[in-house]
Write a structure and sequence with these properties.
alpha+beta, Helix Hairpins, 3 domains, 5-stranded mixed β-sheet, 51% helix, disordered C terminus, TCS_sensor_his_kinase, phosphorelay sensor kinase activity, HisK_dim/P_sf, kinase, transmembrane
Length: 476
Amino acid sequence: MKRSYSLRLRLTLIILLPLLLVAGLAGVWQLNNARSTASDVFDRSLQSAALAVTNDVALSGGDALVANTRKILSDTSGGRVYYHVYAPDGVIVAGYATPPVGIPTSADGGLSPVYFNGEYLGREVRGYRMRTRMQVDGFSGVFTTTVWQDVSIRAAFVQDLTLRSLSVISSIILSLALIVWFGIRIGLWPLSDLQQAIDLRSGEDLKPIRRPVPVEVQGIVQTLNRLLGQVTEVMATQNEFISNAAHQLRNPIAGVLALAEAVRSAKSEDAMRERAEDLVNAVKDTSLLAQKLLTYERAKAIDQTSLKEAFSVNKLLDPLVSEYRNRFPPDVEIIWTPAPEDVRITGDRTMIREAVSNLIDNAFRHGGPELDTITVGFERLGPDLSITIADNGVGLTPDQIRTARMRFGQVSENSGGSGLGLPIVERVAERHGGRLELKDQNPGLVVRMIISVGTCAAASQPADFTPTQLSAAHPE
């Protein structure tokens, strides 16, 4: 299992690691800068010492150095400076008799000053040599002044300067780390508040979270609220299904039990057969009701995955119409003419077939004794598709239409059925982005299930395609 780290630690590392990298680069830069600064400062100090010695030698003839010069030589930039002065003839005028090794010579006798690195008594030194034309005790010419100092003093100075800089940088980084660590903790308090809000939710309370949250987690809260809403809807649907099933199946099951008891207690074989026939019919009605309940729940549960099936409308309706022709009595005719140029749609093929089946079944069940024709067709309504079932039966009044569209609605006490046919069709239409329309045409009823353009694939009907063309002839 992949190890998970706290958000606080992640944010701290994300902020501090780049800062540590910057601090490291700054430390390297500071080290190089300290070396450059130290070299410049020490070289200028050697130059000042050389000028002071040369000036005192010229004034005193090499006999004595003034107090300020001796102070410069004793502690220039934190260390002693050694010196000597040579006359034009090579005779030492003042200073230390033993010179450092590595003093450069000027072949052309130029007067330009020069810095050099050498060795003095086994120690590495940095020196400065200058040549000055002057007169000392009657001797005139070019006098050479050389000063030098141990390099270790420079190294100690650079080390001290670097350590001070690193100490300051480290203190800043440490302070910043503490500020970030505790600052992130304070900044994450809204998440703790959000956690408390989530902890308050339960199976009985799935209301959306309304607490103010930072912009960065608003998307999470919106997604969570959407999920809570979906769970609430699913739970409500389940509760509704259980309530509907319990309500609708209670009486039929009680009737089945009563008939079963009547069969068992029948006093004659004829009475037993009669009651057994009633029992079979009651079981069929109960089975049909259970099937309708499950279909209604299935229609409410249509998801985006099941809406991606592409199929032909002709190939969907052809076998369905043939099935009902074989089922209906000969005096009821179903008129259906397949379209010469087919239409393909994308959706839930099974539920659309179930919806059309319910519409045909309703037309037959509730058409009344005058019913003799049921017309099945489909047409393009602009970008939408309409599957139409029309009959010439008794029709429905506006009040009866409203009742029929209600779940378990019965337009009359003797109408039969489950009262779920039209609600199933309406739910299927809604899940496909469409709607259900009912219109009394006197005689009969016209029912249209309209599927939105979002579920229709490319079609190829001619521009003058109408339902009349679909129902113009009975197929052989």
